[in-house]
């Protein structure tokens, strides 16, 4: 075993750190001067991750390469147990930058645990007025993350279903790769 005389700033270090220095002759320089760096950074990461909303539900459905037709209804089923919390609903649309229209019109239906169903049309702006994509693009593929509902409250526990139907004037819509649904639990209602 190699014994070395430790510099003065390393004398008060824990024994395991001294063992590393004596046997291997190295020690990360940022820890030599601040022994609490790792603990501080780890704690900060935990706090940052714990404070943000978490994904309660996340799913995506691939669409046929030939195009999204009226018959291709995409549905997502999820269970809600916590009726006191508020939720944020997102729609994730993956599309090609060659999509021939500015907007994508969808009819979204919600089926509640008691069997009741409501339906409403939505418009998603895939491109701005100048033709630039509103989504984040990599190559020719873009992803638009759009808020469907900001502070949703589910009043009854049970299984819910959201159905997405393309609601354009043309039966087969090209260049839409997938549609996803993301639900984040935000806070408990007051």
Number of strands: 9
CATH topology of the largest domain: Jelly Rolls
Ranges where pLDDT stays below 50 over 5 or more residues in a row are: 1-6, 15-27, 44-49
- Silhouette: globular
Strand order across the largest sheet? 1-9-3-7-6
Strand content: 35-45%
Give helix and strand order, one letter per element, not per position.
HHHEEEEEEEEE
User: Level of helix content?
Assistant: 10-25%
Topology readout:
Elements: H1 15-24, H2 29-33, H3 37-51, E1 54-62, E2 74-80, E3 85-96, E4 103-111, E5 117-125, E6 136-138, E7 141-153, E8 158-166, E9 176-188
Antiparallel strand pairs: 1-9, 2-8, 3-7, 3-9, 4-5, 4-8, 6-7
Give a structural overview:
The protein is 16% helix and 44% strand. The protein is of the alpha+beta class and 190 residues long. A 5-stranded antiparallel β-sheet has the order 1-9-3-7-6, with no helix packed on it. A hairpin with a 2-residue loop joins strand 6 (136-138) and strand 7 (141-153). The longest helix is centred in the first third of the chain and has 15 residues, at 37-51. It starts with 14 loop residues before the first helix and ends with a strand. Residues 1-6, 15-27 and 44-49 have low confidence and may be disordered.
């Amino acid at each position: 075993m190699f014994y070395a005389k430790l510099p003065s700033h390393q004398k008060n270090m824990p024994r395991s750190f001294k063992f590393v220095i004596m046997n291997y002759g190295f020690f990360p320089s940022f820890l030599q001067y601040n022994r609490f760096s790792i603990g501080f950074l780890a704690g900060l990461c935990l706090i940052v991750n714990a404070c943000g909303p978490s994904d309660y539900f996340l799913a995506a459905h691939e669409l046929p390469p030939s195009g999204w037709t009226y018959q291709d209804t995409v549905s997502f089923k999820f269970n809600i147990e916590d009726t006191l919390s508020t939720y944020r609903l997102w729609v994730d649309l993956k599309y090609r930058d060659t999509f021939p229209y500015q907007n994508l019109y969808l009819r979204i239906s919600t089926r509640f645990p008691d069997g009741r169903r409501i339906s409403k049309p939505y418009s998603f702006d895939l491109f701005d007025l100048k033709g630039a994509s509103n989504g984040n693009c990599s190559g020719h593929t873009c992803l638009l993350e759009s808020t469907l509902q900001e502070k949703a409250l589910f009043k009854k526990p049970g299984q819910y279903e959201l159905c997405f139907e393309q609601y354009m004037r043309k039966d087969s819509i090209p260049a839409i790769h997938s549609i996803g649904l993301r639900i984040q639990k935000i806070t408990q209602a007051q």
